[in-house]
Amino acid sequence: MLDKAHYIVVEGPIGAGKTSLARRLAERLQAGTLFEQAEFNPFLTRFYQQPERWAMATQLSFLFQRIDQLASLGPVGPERRVVADFLMDKDSLFAEQNLSPDELALYHRIRAGMCPAAPPCPDLVIYLQARPEALMERIRKRGLEAERRITESYLHQVAERYTRYFYQYDAAPLFIVDSGELNPVDRDEDFELLLERLRDMRSYREFFGYSG
Fold it and tell me: For the structural domain made of 2-208, what CATH number should be given?
């Protein structure tokens, strides 16, 4: 599967390691990258301080950023591979998590008018699963100022939404990684094993863990 996938997306909740794995994977495959730019969202820090006040502004800022990024993606194929760290559907996932019902209805109207009818679909999605406790520990270790106010309760909710979303996801082949047990970002042996399993992937949905 890996050798035939030209547009690969690595996804997962906050702290799962998706950007780090996407970067390492792109380096190995000599592929281009398409990464979230949370540091350019001027509302994100304020959102974690006052979620109800800043959720809508934060959400719309991410929405417009992702639309612009996907519009600039360009053609992908054997001569130009791309590894990204987000799906466009992630935007709705967080909107449903953070917006009030009235805000969510407005968000969906704005998104319907802004998004392309058929956003580019990846050839392969790698979903990093991890327990909220592990996510919290990683967030604390990386020490980003914007994330200092993230709570474990919020991570539980986010992780649960990701679980439900990918339980029914069927838009592209899905490779689920237990990133609580495996660390393909920091452990070379886990990364090489991940590449091997991705190359041998035959089913539309597979799970990768030490016992997987």
Answer: 3.40.50.300
